[in-house]
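Q: Please design a sequence for this.
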């Protein structure tokens, strides 16, 4: 894992949207059949997961960069912000 590797997870009403710079991770999601992407839980709401759109991913990355740039302006010696949203 490095600074160039990121993962986006967004959840709304039973749908977990996922995107990443890790193409191998995405490829595994893409080849899964829809019934394989459903998570049933004993308590709470079951959900499905799917690869997110580029629009959602781009919005997330832009907001993240705005935060990073803002924190770096306040603390130019900071190597990497601790608050990373959904980055792993």
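A: Design:
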């Amino acid at each position: 894992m490095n600074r160039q590797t990121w993962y986006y997870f967004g959840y709304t009403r039973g749908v977990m949207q996922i995107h990443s710079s890790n193409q191998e991770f995405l490829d595994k999601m893409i080849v899964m059949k829809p019934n394989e992407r459903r998570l049933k839980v004993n308590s709470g709401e079951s959900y499905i997961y799917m690869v997110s759109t580029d629009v959602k991913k781009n919005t997330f990355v832009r907001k993240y960069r705005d935060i990073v740039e803002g924190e770096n302006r306040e603390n130019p010696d900071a190597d990497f912000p601790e608050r990373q949203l959904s980055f792993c």
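Q: Thanks. Anything notable?
A: The longest strand covers residues 7-12. The mean pLDDT is 77.
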